[in-house]
Amino acid sequence: MSYFYTFLVYLLYGLAFFSIGCTILFRNFRHSKLVISHSLWALAAFGFAYAFYEWSELYINLFGDRIREPKSTFIEWLRLTKLTIAFFFLMLFSWMVTVVNSPIVKKIMRLTLFTVTLIYCAIFIYTFSTHGLSKAVIDNTESYARYILAFPAALIAGLSLVNYGRKLIAEKKRHGRYFRVTGYAFIVLSVISGIISRDNNNLIFNLQLIVAYILLISLYLSLNVFDKEKQRIIASQLRQAYISDKYKAIGQLASGVAHEINNPLSSSTLSLDMLEERLSDDKQVELVKRTRLGIDRASTICRELLIYSRSGEESTQLSYIHRIITSALQLLSHKTKGYKITVNCEKYITLLTNPIKIEELIINLLSNAIDASHVGSEIMIDVKETMINDCNYVILSVTDQGCGMDISTQEKALEPFFTTKPIGKGTGLGLAICAEIATDHRGELTINSRKNIGTTITAKLAKEM
Prior knowledge:
Layout: H1 3-25, H2 40-63, H3 71-97, H4 103-131, H5 135-170, H6 176-194, H7 202-278, H8 282-308, E1 317-320, H9 321-331, H10 333-336, E2 340-344, E3 350-353, H11 355-372, E4 378-388, E5 391-400, H12 407-412, H13 430-440, E6 444-450, E7 454-462
Parallel strand pairs: 2-4
Antiparallel strand pairs: 1-3, 4-5, 5-7, 6-7
Helix pairs in contact: 1-2, 1-7, 2-3, 3-5, 4-5, 5-6, 6-7, 7-8, 9-11, 11-13
């Protein structure tokens, strides 16, 4: 190859891998829900390390004949070190990305990677301890690095990405096809870079260059999904902020109205009590009872409005969740008759909270589950502790086997005053109150429901507010 052609090809080939590193480096994967997001930093490190290796190859090809001993041996040793570091990062990426496969396939792939790494390390130590440090030994070791490290690592990474892309396509996600192309590019690159030597073979070198840029482009298109995820997160946060402000204003208004209405309702209830004691006609007593039901209904709505609009500054204490659940079940004993209530909660699980609020959350979730279920159905209350982003959380979920909700109902279920219950059966504030309680505990309320199968509502609550 001419000097200019050699310079151009090596420069572009190294630039392809350097661009792969930059493509990954300048994206924020913190809030990403993609399974492979945690492993991409290793691919970026491989891209940067391999790019510097290729550029050092360019230097040696252009000026190698001017370098004399002992500098030439040192440069060759440095080149092998950079190549080995690059391939170890590729091995690490391949190891981490195997999580997208089935447990058996993942175990086989990781065992393969572990085995070839041990083999290479043994060859590396034996070669240099036996034959010493020379250009011929370094060249042989470089070939071993390509055969033993690069080929299986790139192949396994490619197969894993192809499988991941296939899963995304099955889920009707468009970026899945780009992950598949990225996987195929890795597979081809594993063969033409790991097995086939490019020494004095312009065709192989040009093919490597083409595949490297296909890998770069497909990876760039694949990672565009992270930008879209970030945009969705920002849009969701803006929407939540707007809704929060709107509901705050509604809550303040509702609180004032509820206070004003509650006073005459209390007076009316007292008057009805006195009137009922003086009446002897059964029809008139029945009318009074109907009137009382209406007043009680209005009083209930006012009370729930006040609960929803409360500031949440009540005192907190270390509370045992199991005890709170027991108390809530006692309060709902008149409703739980005929239902099988199963509680899975270790007695040691605690939460720094206002226990009345958690009891209110459990009562609301359990009442909704009972209303949605048939008599005799099982309702499960599950509580467990977990660590999320270095923070301890209590995960409380209530699962029923009731009528379930469709997607549109789930999207509106947490809105205040939204209810699917008949008039007089629900205020539409129960889940809104639960969501607010979860938010007060630096958590969230999520709904997982399928029509005619059942519903699971989960409250994620930080152990310390």
